[in-house]
Queue: 4 jobs
Job 1
Amino acid sequence: MILKKSCVLIVDDDPDVLTAVKLLLKTEAQEVITEKNPENLNWLLQRNQVDLVLLDMNFNSAINTGNEGLYWLRKIKEWKPNVCVIMITAYGDIDLAVRSLKEGANDFIVKPWHNEKLIDTIKELLEKKEGVKPAKATKSGSGATSILGESDVMQDIFFKVGKIAPTDANILILGENGTGKDLMAKAIHERSLRADKPFVKVDVGALTDSLFESELFGHKKGAYTDAREDRMGRFEEAEGGTLFLDEIGNISLQQQAKLLTVLQNRQVTRLGTNKAVDIDIRLICATNLPLSELANESRFRKDLVYRINTVEINMPPLRRRNEDIIIIARHFAKLYANKYLKPSVDFDASAIQKLKSYGYPGNVRELQYTIERAVIMADDHTLRADDLIFSILETQPEQVVDDDNVPLSALEKNAILRVIEKHNGNITRAAKELGLTRTALYRRLSKYDI
C-alpha cells in the first residue's frame, strides 16, 4: 500500500488538529510530521521527502492576507510542484477552498471530517500520483437522478459536487432552461449527509406574493380567508433535509426580503402566529439568469445572492458537451424503449451525425423529447436521421410568436403548412415531425381546408 511508504506533513496552527491527524495517520503512513508555523514549510520540504501536505486555509501568521492558505499553497507548488496538497477548511471557507483547486490544490476536506473519508482521500491521491488512476466518472447521483457525462466540463462538475455535497454549504445552480438544474439539485442531496431526510422542491418563481409566505413558511388556521387548518410550510417540511428553491431569480424584491430574514435567523414564523420555529435545512437554489443579472440590485438583493451562493455550479448547455450527446441519447433510447415496450433501438451513422451537429437550444430536455418521439414512431431497431425530428418551438420561435394577436388555430395551420411544404407533401413524414398520427393530420387538413 502506497500510504504505508509515504511521508505526510500536517500544517495547522491548531494543536488539537495536529494531534488528531497524527494519531489517525500514525499506523497508516510511514512518517507523519506536524507543524504549527507555515513559515517553516520550505525548510521542512527541503529536509524531508514529503509526499503529501495537509494545509490549513487560515493562519494567524505574518503573511496576513486573509487567505493565507492560498499563499502557502502557491509557495508549496513553487518549491515542490509534485507534492500533493489537501486543504483543510472550515464550513464558512468552502468557496475559498474551491478556489484553491484552481490554484493547484489536489483536494480539500471540511472540519470536522470523517476519519475514514480523510484516509480514503489521501490514499486515492497518492495512488493517482503513482499512476494508479481511478475509473473515469460518467455520472453524478443515483437511479433516476443520474446525470450522465464524460466531457471535461462535466468531469469538473462531478469533482466539485463530490467535494461540496457532503457539506451543508448553500449552493446556487446556474444554467439555461433544460440543462438539468433540478436533477443536479437532487443528485447533490443524494450524495449529502442528509440523503435520508426530505428533499423538498418549490418553484418559487410561480408563487404570487399572497401565496409566497403561506407556501414557504406555513400558516395558522384563520390567518386568512381560505386558511381552514394549520399548515406546515416547505421550510418545516424540509427539516433536517434539503430545500430546493427553483427559479429563484424570478421572485420579487419583497419576497427576497422575507426569504433573507428567514435564512439569516434560521427561523420561520407561520402566518397568523408570532411563534418562531427553528429550522435546520440545506438550501439549494437554481435560476436560468446569469450571475451578472442577479448582481443587479434593482432586480435582486446582493445580500441575498451572497447568502444563497456559498458555492455556485454552472450547468453547461448541451452544445458545450458535444461528446456527451450520444451517451445521453442512448440513455433516453433505452429508457423509452422500456417504457413503451419497444424493442431495443440504436442509432445509425446518419442519426449520430445529425445528433452531434444540432445546436440544442432546448438543451438536454429537447434531446430527451426528440428521442422519446423517435422511439415511439420507430418501425425497427435502428433510428435514422429522418427519425429525429427536432422541436419547431425551439428551431423556429420567431415564426410562431411574432404576433400576440394571431389566434391559436392560425398558428397551428401555419405550422402544418410549413411542415408539409418541407416534406414536399409527404403526409407520413409530416405527421411524424408534428408528432401526430396520419389520421389526426388528415383531420386537421380537413378542418383548415388545406
Job 2
Amino acid sequence: MSLRIAILIFDRLTALDAIGPYEVLSRLPGSEVVFVAKEPGLKRTDTGRLGLNADAAIADVRDPAIVLVPGGEGNRPLMLDDEVLDWLRGAHETSTWTTSVCTGALVLGAAGILDAKRATTHWAYLDRLRELGAEPVGERVVEDGKIITGAGVSAGLDMALTLASRVSGETVAQAIQLGIEYDPKPPFDTGSPDKAPPDLVEFIRSSEG
C-alpha cells in the first residue's frame, strides 16, 4: 500500500525542517512523499539561496496519510491564511499522523489542531504555542494522540524517526537511522537553552524575534 506523505512548503521556510524528515520518511516502505504548497512551483528557503519545488497544490492533495508542516519565518502568513488552515483541518481529519517541525507547530495551532494538546516547537516560541491553545512541552519530540511535534530544526530528524517507528516498527526506523548514519556528536554542548551560556541564549532569542 502506498503511504502518501504531504510536506507543506512555502517561501522562506527553513530547509532542514523539511529536508531532514524527508530523508527519513522517503525511506519508509511504500512511501510517496509529495511537497505541496498553495500553488505549485519553486519555493525559496529563508536564505534565499536554496529552492524546493512544490509538485502539487494543496487543493489537489486532500487526504494524505501523513501531513508535515515545517518551520521558518515564511510560515507566519500561513497562520492567517484561510485556504491553508482549512486544508490542514481537512487533512488532519483523515490523516493517520499530523506532524510539525520547529515553528510549523504554530501553524497547526493557528488551525486549532493543537487545542488542549501537548506539543513542542523551537524553544524561543514555546510561549506562543500556549497562546494558540496548546500545552507547550520543552521536549525534543512530543506525541499526543496522532499528533507528533518536533522542537527546533534538527529535531525534525528525531521526530521523523519516531514517526517511522510508529508507522513501520522500530526495526525499520533503526535501519533508516543507520542508513543515514544519524549518530550525532556535536562539537559543542550548546544545543539547548539549558546548556548554552545566558548571553548566547539571549542573542538567539533576540534574533528569532
Job 3
Amino acid sequence: MRNPPKLSNDCFSLPPGVHWTPVDEALASLRERVSVVTGIEPVPTAAAGGRVLAVDVVAKRNSPPYANSAVDGYGFAFASLGQGEQALPLAIGRAAAGGPFDGAVPAGKALRILTGAMVPTGIDTILLEEDVVIEDGILKFEMGLKAGANVRPKGEDVAVGERVLSSGRILQPQDLALLAAVGVDTVRTYKRLRVGVLSTGDELRQIGEDIAPHQIYDANRPMLVDLIRRWGMEPVDLGHVRDDADVVKKMLTRGAREADVILTSGGASAGDEDHISAALQASGTLNLWRIAIKPGRPLALAMWDGVPVFGLPGNPVAAFVTALIFARPTMLELSGAGWAEPRGIHLPAAFSKIKKPGRREYLRAKMNADGRVEVFKSEGSGRISGLSWAEGLVELQNEGREIAEGDLVRYYPFSEFGL
C-alpha cells in the first residue's frame, strides 16, 4: 500500500492578525490541518504491542471456541433431574482442558469435568464439586440450580466474524490476548511514526563530554527521545548542532529524509542566534505561534522538505509541557492513532495562588495522600527538578482567579499524556 500524501506547506497557518493564540484555538487549528503520514504494514500479533491498527480486526475463531466448563465439578443433562434430592450414577472417565471426554454422556448419568474442559455431548449443566456428595459411585446433591449453570457457551465472548478492535487503536497487552484468543496471528498496522529530535546551541554539551563554566548539558534531547519512545513512535536522534545557519539547514534536510516529523529544541525565537526559526523562515513555511501559555514561548511550526517541524522552546520545562500539550496529540494524529485529549479530574487544592488573566498555566503537581493536589515549590521554568517531582499538571484557564486551599482545580496525571 502506498504511503499517504504529505501534508501541505500551509498546514500550520493561522488566520492573519492573530497575535496571542489561545491554547484551545492552537490545538483546534492543528487538529484540522494534520492527517496520517505513515504507510501500512503487516505485523505478527505477538510483536504488535504499541502499534496503531490501520484496519479493523474481525475474529477468525469463536471465543470460547467450544462450550466449556466454568468450574471444577460434575456435568449432566438437566432434563434428567427430578425434584428434591438428586442421585446420579457417575460415568466412567472425565473431561479436562486439553483432554476432552471421548463419546457422549448417557442420559441420567453425571461426568467429572474440570474448569475449561470441552462440554461433552449429553451435558448441558454443571454443578460445583463443593455442592455434591459422592457415595459408592453415586453423585448426590440437592436440587436448586438452573439449566445451563456453569457452562460457558461457544462464542459467548466473541463470535467468529465479529469486529473485535477498530482502526486507530494503539494495541495494549490485553488486546494481544484478545487477538490471540480469536485466532488473529497478523494485524495490519501503521508504520511507526519516525520522529527526529534535534538540539541546537553553542552552549550545549552532551553528558560525558568535558564542559566549560559557560556551558550546560543537553537535557532536552534525552527527555524528548524517551517521550517519543513511550508514545510508541520511533525516535530518530539527530544529535546536537552548533549555532551555525548552514549546519542547521543541513541537519533539517537530513531529518526530513530520515523522519516523518522533526522536533527541535532551542533556536526557535527571533534572536541573533535563533537559527532554527531563521532557517524555517527562509523556507517560506514558518508560523511562529505566540501561544498564551505558561510555561512556554513562541512555538515554531513549519514544513521542511515536506516534513512538519515543531520548534520547541529551549527551556526543558517549557519543552516538556509544550511537547505534551501540542506535539503529542499532533503526532498521534500523524501516526494514525487519532487526536488524543487528556482527561482531567477535579481535586481540592493543597495550595493557594493568585493567577493573573491572559495565559493558560500548567503547574507541576501531584496528588497527596489526602487526595489533594500539591504544586511544586517554584513556578520557575528553569527548575528542572520540578519535572521529576511532579506526577501530573494542574491546568489553570486563561481567566484570572484567586485560588484558596480546598478550591477545586483541574489535574491531569501524567498517565493521561501516555507516561
Job 4
Amino acid sequence: MKFKKSSLLFLSVIFFVIIIILVTVSLIRRGRKYPHSGYFSTKCLDYKQKEFSRKLNDKIVEYSAAAKLTGIKVCKDEKELKKRISEGKLVKVKSGNYYIVEKMKFSYPCVTRESKILIDEIAEKLSAKASQKGLTGVRFYITSMTRISDNMKSLRRSNGNASANSPHLYGNTFDISYKRFVAHKWVLTNCDKKFLKEALAEVIWQLKEDNQCWATYEKVQNCFHIVSR
C-alpha cells in the first residue's frame, strides 16, 4: 500500500511538471509569434495606433431628443424596469468572453435588444483588432447602462454632470471604461492600455460614422458614452 501511495505521488509530480513545461513552451512560441507583445513582456511598445477618442464628440443635448424616440418609455422604478424586461423591450447583459459588466450602483445591467447587438459588435471588433497585435482575450468593462427615474436624484447628488434627461433613462445607452481592460497577458503596460483605449475609440468611431450610434468621450467619468441609433 505504501509503495502504491508513493508511486501515485511520484506520477502526480511528473504530470504536474509536464503540464508546466507544456504551458511554458506554448508561451515561448506565442512570444516568438508576437515578439512585440509576449505574455510576460513589460516593455512599453509603440503600437502606432492613431488617436480616435477626441473624435467621439457628439454632444448629448444635440441627440437626447432623438435618443428618446428610439428608446423605451422611462421607468419610474424597478418594478417598471422588470416589466420592460418581461415584455422583451429590454434584455439583460451579462459578463462574457468579450466584456465585463461591472456591479452598478445607479443603473441596471440591461439595454434594448439593438443596444445589446451594438455592444457585442464593439467587443468582437476590438478583440479582433487587438489580436492582430498579439493581445488576445481582451475584455473591457461596461460601467453603466439603463437607469430609472427614482435613482436619478441620488446620482445627481454624487455626480453634478448627471442630467435629469439622461439618455440612460431610455434603455439604449451604455458606458464603456477606457481606463481598464483585461487580456491574456501577465501585465498590461501603459502602452497596452493606451493602444486599447484608442483601438476601442476607433471601433466606436467607425460605427458612429456608419450612423449606428452617437458617442461622447467623457473625460471626467473615464468612459465612452454610447447611444445606439
